[in-house]
């Protein structure tokens, strides 16, 4: 397993990300061969060494004839689905374009099926996003971490005319993710760059381990206040019993909320991005029984969740503390059974498969649909999953 850390001090775009992957060792000819599997022509990939503020990296760009054809999201998705790309590359690329399509649909107030891309449907954007999926697959990158993103201010130009920076689609894609004001009037984080980070990365501090291979993807701007580079650190496989990441723990003592209010609060917390939340019985001052609420979340979500706790319970304060969690890796898959489809979680210690677990909601649905005991459905789903395990491991690159 390889882990990539993105140091986005000057933002991220699709071409910067591909330039970074090339600088980290992505085989350019192999990348071109994979891209040739798409029914897209009349373009040329250019990769060269350039410097920004004296730091050298790889500049990735696409030259193509002017394209006035506005491709719809459904056309792009079908093109990718029917391509001969690897399953992982295909799945990632389709995720990228769906995320971008949903953002464009939200911004313009239409359904995703009505979205007709301009920049996104252009040849260079198709190459950037599909190339990123191919590069992740070819380099064997299984995990991506990212620093907070620097957003720009001002007005930018696009096919729709003048738009505020950051672009509306970029803001939509990055909801709930950590950002800060860069003070720059050039577009540092593009919609394609935001899409890549949203679909691939977790936002964390720099990993506490030996620095691996370092690469730089070069952007198109010449900026006075910073080098227009995307720095990445590629860490080779390092066996640890579990994966560790930074989280925040929120706690509050609650003694005068009803059970209905407490149940509703848990649902709201999970909907707002809590990783875990639970109540612990508590004996409080004046001999009052109460509840200790404990919430685990990503640091970027802590303020939102703390505010939600105080708005939707009797709590008048919330404690927070940074901490780390150790966890197994998991892959969620859907399998076919004699009762119908059901979700299953596959649990791994890096590349070592440990066990699997059937999804409760799906098992409950099947149990009620077929009037069977829930325990019996659990056994049937998990037995079916074990029967299909060799294929499932292959599909998740753990064969």
From TrEMBL:
The keyword Lyase applies. It comes from Pelovirga terrestris. Keywords: Lyase, Nickel. This is Putative nickel insertion protein. The keyword Lyase applies. One of its GO terms (molecular function) is lyase activity. Pfam families: Ni_insertion. HAMAP family: LarC. Belongs to the LarC family.
């Amino acid at each position: 397993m390889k882990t990539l850390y993105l140091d986005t001090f000057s933002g991220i775009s699709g071409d910067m990300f591909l330039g970074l992957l090339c600088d980290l060792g992505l085989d350019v000819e192999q990348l071109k061969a994979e891209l040739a599997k798409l029914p897209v022509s009349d373009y040329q990939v250019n990769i060269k060494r350039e410097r920004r503020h004296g730091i050298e990296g790889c500049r990735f760009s696409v030259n193509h004839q002017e394209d006035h054809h506005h491709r719809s999201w459904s056309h792009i998705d079908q093109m990718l689905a029917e391509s001969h790309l690897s399953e992982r590359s295909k799945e990632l690329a389709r995720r990228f374009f769906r995320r971008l399509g949903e953002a464009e649909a939200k911004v313009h107030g239409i359904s995703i099926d009505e979205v007709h891309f301009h920049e996104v449907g252009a040849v260079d954007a198709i190459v950037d996003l599909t190339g990123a999926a191919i590069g992740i697959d070819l380099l064997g990158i299984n995990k991506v971490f990212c620093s907070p993103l620097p957003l720009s201010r001002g007005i930018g130009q696009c096919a729709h005319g003048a738009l505020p920076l950051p672009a509306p689609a970029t803001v939509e894609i990055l909801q709930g993710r950590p950002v800060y004001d860069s003070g720059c009037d050039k577009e540092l984080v593009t919609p394609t760059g935001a899409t890549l980070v949203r679909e691939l990365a977790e936002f964390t501090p720099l990993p506490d381990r030996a620095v691996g291979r370092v690469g730089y993807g070069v952007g198109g701007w010449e900026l006075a206040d910073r080098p227009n580079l995307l720095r990445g650190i590629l860490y080779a496989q390092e066996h640890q019993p579990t994966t560790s990441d930074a989280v925040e723990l929120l706690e509050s003592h609650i003694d005068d909320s009803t059970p209905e209010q407490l149940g509703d609060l848990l649902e709201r917390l999970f909907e707002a991005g809590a990783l875990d939340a639970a109540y612990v019985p508590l004996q409080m001052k004046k001999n009052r029984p109460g509840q200790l609420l404990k919430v685990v979340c990503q640091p970027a979500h802590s303020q939102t969740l703390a505010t939600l706790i105080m708005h939707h319970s009797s709590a008048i304060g919330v404690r927070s503390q940074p901490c780390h969690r150790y966890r197994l890796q998991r892959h969620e898959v859907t399998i076919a059974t004699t009762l119908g489809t059901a979700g299953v979680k596959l649990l791994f210690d890096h590349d070592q498969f440990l066990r699997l677990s059937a999804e409760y909601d799906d098992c409950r649905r099947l149990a009620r649909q077929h009037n069977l005991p829930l325990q019996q459905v659990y056994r049937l789903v998990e037995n079916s999953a074990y029967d299909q395990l060799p294929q499932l491991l292959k599909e998740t690159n753990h064969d």
